[in-house]
Amino acid sequence: MPKGGPDGGDGAPGGTSCLVATRQLHDLSHFRHKHHFRAQDGGHGRGANKRGADGPELLVQVPVGTEVLDAEGGVLG
């Protein structure tokens, strides 16, 4: 090809979501209006085969003693 082919890099993975237990919270009332949390997407690939930036990590604070269940009802933590 006279001007070269596409040279874009790969897009990056999105950020991970983590629950963090904290003694500063006493109940789950701050989840009353926000039920869904999603880490941000990763960056797009760039020219010269440069990879995009990873998405930032999302830390969601919950009170100590909170049970986390998977879709089948099994305890994750």
Which helices and strands occur, and which strands form pairs?
Blueprint: E1 17-22, E2 58-63
Parallel strand pairs: 1-2
- DSSP strand tally: 2
Strand order of the largest sheet: 1-2
Please state the overall shape, judged from the principal axes of the Cα atoms. elongated
Average of per-residue pLDDT values: 83
Strand content: 15-25%
Total of DSSP H or I helical runs spanning 4+ residues = 0
- Secondary-structure element order, as H and E? EE
Structural class: mainly beta
Quick one: biggest sheet? Answer: 2 strands, parallel
For the CA atoms, what is the radius of gyration?
A: 19 Å
Unreliable sequence segments: none
The CA-CA distance between the termini, in Å, is 55 Å
Helix content: under 10%
